[in-house]
Amino acid sequence: MPPDSTAAPLLTVRSLSVRRAGRSVLERVDLELHAGEIVTLIGPNGAGKTTLVRAALGLIKADHGAVTRAPGAVGYVPQKLHLDSTLPLTVARFLCITAGCSRAAAAAALVEAGLAHVKNTAFQQLSGGESRRVLLAAALLRKPRLLVLDEPSAGMDVSAQRDLWELLARVRERRGCGILLVSHDLHMVMAATDRVVCLNRHVCCTGHPESVSRHPRYFELFHGAPGSIAVYTHRHDHQHDLAGQVRR
Amino acid sequence: MAEDFLLRALAAGGLTALVAGPLGCFVLWRRMVYFGAALAHAALLGIALGFLIGVSPQAGMLGVALLVSLAAVALEERAQLASDTVLAILAHSTLAVGIIVLSLTAPAQSGLLGYLFGDILAVSGADLLWVAVTAAAGLLLLAVFWRRLLLVTLHPDLAAVDGVHATAVRLLLMLLLSLVIAVSMQIVGLLLVVSLLILPAAAARRVARTPEAMAAVAAVAGMAAVAAGLQLSLWFDFPTGPAIVAAATVLFALSLAVRRR
User: How far apart are the first and last CA of chain A?
Assistant: First the structure.
């Protein structure tokens, strides 16, 4: 389902500014998210990505500007969740509490997410990637219209990352959710996102992944200023065969 | 032969343990042990101020406990100090001022030992009523807010996205803790109050597989410790509060032998 930009947006951020301890964290940020759209926030450390996500969810107050969300359930996948080891909690029970659902619904969601084998595992024993997938399953159980994920692919191996992005594409397709996410995973972002917002306290540039990756501001932010030392990245215009010979 | 004072002691101790068990689970899960200790120290100031301005010790303890809760939250945000430092400052300053005020209002050290170690055998009918009302209110609030309390314990932001007022739930927990510490003061005294919260909960952790089971086992373990402590104190003339805590420690030690599932 292509994003429908004529309908009212699920999320509107207008001229949002946030200050913390006298330091400006976000300055006049604008953002819109429509149903069926995947928007990814990228930017260096300290760019205010998490702050923007938290403000969009209404978890922190804006110093200036406004955030409006269309009515409907919100699914949120936080960056991490630490549980004290004294809390006896299985994964299934964790889903029941966070999603407010029945045991049967939690079990079905775990099967769907390919996590049936950890159903009765203590939440604290999950690996980083597994716990993130459980958090995502919990968010989806709430049948959200708006899904917000803060670095969902951190701590996942490459195949788990690919699965995650495929899952997000499926969720968008089937349920028509609007999805807002923060990611450092630039290659995946460029392949799987409708719109990229490049943030560095203010919105540096925004648009379709192709156009953003050619934007000079994006280049400065992620590869250093032109002429300075840049992280070496290259595009393959060829493949190697088993003997190492170049095949075009 | 069951004397009336023994029955009152058993009822007051049992009811306190019944609500201290589940609440103690949250103290463990949320790492609020130091907070509980600070409230216990501050309770002495509450008792002393109660004497000074002529209100009941319970009201004094509750008032001071609430002020200390708010001060702890405010200091942590403003003073850029770690929470254990903030709580130690609050605990010791309120204890020192409490002892000073007590020395002004009460005849020389009269009740100090009773406040430090509790005096469960001196529980009056009116005391028992106050314990019963507190325990009932505490259990009711815990039951009504159970899912919200758990959700805030798991992740405050997830709770907030779910429409739960995380700060209000945190304040509720502080209020419950203040209430339970105020009633526990007479049972085991300020030096041992925290153990009534954490020993039964810690023992329950070894055998429980769900939060609810841990809360229930903690309540039962606490009540068993109260009964055993009273019995020990009757047989061997031990001081009762410490005997209760010793019994709870034995239960915890036994729980260590349970193979962790």
Answer: 35
